[in-house]
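User: Can you model how zinc ion sits in this protein?
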Amino acid sequence: MIYSDRLIEKLKNAEKVSVLTGAGVSAESGVPTFRDPGGIWEKFRPEQLANFEAFMKDPDFVWSWYQHRREIMREVKPNNGHFALAEMEKIFPSFSLITQNIDNLHYRAGSRNITELHGNIERNYCIKCRTFFHEIDIQEKKVLKCTNCGGLIRPDVVWFGEMLPVKELKYAENAAADSDVFFTIGTSAEVYPAALLPIIAKRAGAYSVEININPTVISFDLDETLTGKSAEILPELLNKIKEIRNN
Ligand code: BV8
Ligand code: ZN
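Assistant: Here's the modeled complex, given as C-alpha cells:
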C-alpha cells in the first residue's frame, strides 16, 4: 500500500475524520459511475435526465430511468470499501461520512452518521403536496400519481439546478472546515457545491487525501493521493488504522 508516514501519523492522532464519497466508491459493487467510460452519462447527458425540466417534459422517461437505476441498486451489494468506512466510523471519536451517492449502499454497509448531499433514490415524494411514498412498485415504468392530490411523484434526489438540502450542506461544510483528516474518495470532483468541500477542508488545515483510480481536477490541490480502487485501498487502510490505534 502506498500511503505516506505523514498520513499514518495524522490518522494515529486524528480526532475528527470526514469523508466525501462519489460514484467511484460504488463502482466495485457494479453500480455504473457517471463519467467513466460506460458510465451513465455516456448514453444520456445529465441535462436530459437529472433535472426538473426534463422530468416535466417527459415524466415517464425520467421516472423509468430512475426505476432502472433502482433495480440495479437493489441487485447490488455494498463492497469492502463501504464496509471499511462503516468500521472507521466506530474507531474515530468523530467520523462524518458525506456522500454524493444516492444508492443507499453506505447505509446498507452499516454506516450511520451519513450526510446525503444529493438525496436517496429509495425515497420519493409528490411534487405538489410533498407526501413521501416509500413503497413503490419498481416495475412501474410509468410515472406514479400521488394518492392524496394526483400530483406527479419524483425521486428524492437533487437534480442539476436544484439546491442541495440546506441542513446536509451546512453539516458538510462545517465538517470540512473542522476535520483533522479529510478523505475524498471516488469522485471526479466536477459537481458543485460538493466539489468545494475538499478545498474547504484543505484551506481549513485538514490533511486532505484523495483515493481514486485516476487523477482528478483537485488532485494537485490536496496533500496526498492514493491511486487505486477504493474497495482495495480502504480495507488495507482500515487494518493500518486499527494497528496504529490498537483498536
Ligand atoms: C446547484 C443526483 C444551484 C441525481 C447529481 C458551472 C460551474 C460550476 C457549477 C455549475 C456550472 N454550471 C452548473 C453548475 C451547477 C451544477 C454543477 O456543478 N454542474 C457541473 C456538471 C459543472 N450543480 C448543480 O446544479 C447543483 N445545484 O448548483 O444549484 C442553485 C443555486 C441557487 C438556486 C437554485 C440552484 C446540484 C448538483 C447535484 C446534481 N445531482 N446526482 C442522480 O444521481 O440522478 S450529480 C451526480 O454527479 C452524482 O450525484 C454525483 O454527485 C456527481 C458527481 O459524480 P461522481 O460521484 O464524482 O461520479 P463520476 O462518475 O463523475 O466520477 C467517478 C469517479 O470515481 C472518477 O473520478 C473515477 O476515476 C473514480 N472511480 C471509478 N472507479 C473507482 C473510482 N475511484 C476509486 N475506486 C474505484 N473503483
Ligand atoms: Zn400529492
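A couple of observations from the model: Residues 59-75 form the longest helix (17 residues). The mean pLDDT is 94.
User: Helpful, thanks.
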